[in-house]
């Protein structure tokens, strides 16, 4: 089906949602302000989207609170919530073509990735948490013959889900799934670069049977709408995915307001460690290339630091350079494209600035390092691999969020682990080795929330995802994600 669709024709005729979704319907914003939504594939303005302000956020929070207190969702029978969320998942898949197109128009990712990956991922996530609703139990504590003590989980109330632009649908689903499954009302705040699919989700939720006010969507600028949610006295929790810098703001907002619960999945500078005993450099090269060039490197856990033993460095870099040929930027609406554009002109300038910094600090670009496809007006950067990188260089320390790999040479296991952990981040890491002993040693030694061995970026809804250190706290995915959106209540019954 994917290859038979005229995606350019669909794009020209697309209906682009651009108003907030509050209390079960699209509404005009109270602010009256708008921002441009730009297609990064050619730089043209697609539409103006409502830029919600404090008043709009107040209206969305009030709607969510009314729905929560009314109990139309929070006290709904678990089996009924399950039915509605499963229907929501089905509708996401039923609108697969539209959602994939909206995602590509917003962020410039290849349409094949949006169609086969992002839409399916979001629907699967919602369905997974729907199925979990009536399978998570409370506890009866052992407190003696004169008491019965029950421990139950209750929803927090009003949850703000603030999500990034790199995987708008998937990241929204990672928050919506557990927050809605546990009975909360949610205000979804998409990144200003990528509001379309979030707004469509609001519409589909109502079609699925979700009561009005349970899911509201407020597009807007982070420092206005995001800040308003963070400081709001009637928001009980913020689940945020994005930069470490902004994550720290939400921590401050919590303390300045009502000490709302915060869950943070933040930045990363993930190491790809290739030890001297790696016995499959072809597999390592393919995994490393995918880990930095997929989604144009705009991935929080991108394997952006290659830490490679000197004895195999040259052979591995040659293979990675060959793999990079598979990720040359192309038209995002072409089904054959594997790497699309960077999300915005601002992000493109940021990435190119890091490339300039790498050269200025003494690293050399083995491949890439330039903007390409300039004739399209789009924001495209070719796959870039730096060699001769030291771990104290800017390109090795800071999160670039683009298709830029920094290769750092080490000698031996101990130096590799020291360099891998010499970072403020701890989201993920990987080790490539032919030794079972070194595999276990490295997996334990790397200080990160996720460690892959002889693979990269594998995932399952059954496995938690999140980081150590300044990569945040709390977990998305798995049953553990439900912890963020619930409180424990102990109830004592005297006999």
Quick summary of this structure?
The chain has 495 residues and is α/β, with parallel strands linked by helices. It is 38% helix and 21% strand.
**How far apart lie the N and C ends?**
64 Å
Q: Order of strands side by side in the largest beta sheet?
A: 14-17-18-13-12-20-21
Q: Low-confidence stretches at least 5 residues in length (pLDDT < 50)?
A: none
CATH architecture of the largest domain: 3-Layer(aba) Sandwich
Helix percent reads 25-40%
In CATH, the topology of the largest domain is named Aldehyde Dehydrogenase, Chain A, domain 1
What is the CATH H-level superfamily of the largest domain? Answer: Aldehyde Dehydrogenase, Chain A, domain 1
Number of helices: 15
Largest sheet report = 7 strands, mixed
Shape: globular
What is the CATH top level name of the largest domain? Alpha Beta
Structural class: alpha/beta
- The structural domain count equals 2
* Average pLDDT rating: 98
Number of strands: 24
Query: Which percent band covers the strand fraction?
Result: 15-25%
Task: Kindly provide the radius of gyration, computed on alpha-carbon positions and rounded to a whole number of angstroms.
Answer: 23 Å
């Amino acid at each position: 089906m994917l290859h038979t669709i005229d995606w350019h024709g669909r794009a020209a005729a697309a209906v682009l949602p651009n108003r907030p979704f509050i209390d079960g319907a699209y509404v005009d914003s109270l602010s009256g302000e708008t921002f441009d939504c730009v297609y990064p594939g050619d730089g043209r303005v697609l539409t103006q989207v409502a830029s919600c302000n404090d008043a709009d956020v107040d209206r969305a929070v009030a709607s969510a609170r009314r729905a929560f207190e009314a109990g139309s969702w929070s006290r709904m029978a678990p089996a009924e919530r399950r039915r509605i969320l499963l229907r929501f998942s089905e509708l996401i898949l039923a609108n697969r073509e539209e959602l994939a197109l909206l995602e590509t128009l917003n962020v410039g990712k290849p349409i094949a990735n949006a169609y086969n990956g992002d839409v399916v991922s979001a629907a699967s996530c919602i369905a997974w948490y729907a199925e979990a609703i009536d399978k998570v139990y409370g506890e009866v504590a052992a407190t003696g013959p004169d008491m019965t003590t029950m421990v139950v989980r209750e929803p927090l109330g009003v949850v703000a889900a603030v999500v990034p632009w790199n995987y708008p649908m998937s990241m929204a689903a990672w928050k919506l799934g557990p927050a809605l499954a546990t009975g909360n009302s949610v205000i979804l705040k998409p990144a200003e670069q990528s509001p379309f699919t979030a707004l469509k989700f609001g519409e589909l939720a109502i079609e699925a049977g979700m009561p009005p006010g349970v899911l509201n969507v407020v597009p807007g600028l982070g420092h206005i709408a995001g800040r308003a949610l963070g400081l709001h006295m009637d928001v009980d929790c913020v689940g945020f995915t994005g930069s470490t810098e902004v994550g720290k703001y939400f921590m401050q907002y919590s303390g300045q307001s009502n000490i709302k619960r915060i869950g943070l999945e933040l930045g990363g500078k993930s190491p790809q460690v290739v030890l001297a005993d790696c016995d499959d450099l072809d597999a390592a090269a393919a995994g490393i290339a995918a880990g930095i060039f997929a989604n144009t490197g705009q991935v929080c856990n991108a394997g952006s630091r290659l830490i490679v033993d000197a004895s195999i460095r040259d052979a591995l870099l040659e293979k990675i350079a060959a793999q990079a040929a598979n990720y040359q930027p192309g038209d995002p609406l072409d089904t054959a494209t594997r790497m699309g554009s960077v999300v915005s002109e601002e992000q493109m300038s940021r990435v190119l600035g890091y490339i300039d910094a790498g050269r200025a600090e003494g690293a050399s670009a083995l491949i890439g390092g330039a903007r390409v496809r300039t004739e399209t007006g789009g924001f495209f950067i070719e796959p870039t691999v730096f060699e001769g990188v030291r771990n104290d260089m800017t390109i090795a320390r800071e999160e670039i969020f683009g298709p830029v790999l920094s290769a750092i040479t080490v000698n031996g296991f101990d130096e590799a682990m020291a360099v891998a952990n010499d970072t403020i981040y701890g989201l993920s890491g990987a080790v490539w080795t032919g030794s079972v002993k070194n595999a276990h040693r490295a997996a334990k030694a790397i200080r990160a929330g996720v460690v892959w061995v002889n693979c990269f970026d594998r995932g399952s809804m059954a496995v938690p995802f999140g980081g150590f250190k300044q990569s945040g706290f709390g977990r998305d995915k798995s049953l553990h994600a439900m912890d963020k959106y619930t409180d424990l209540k102990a109830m004592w019954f005297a006999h």
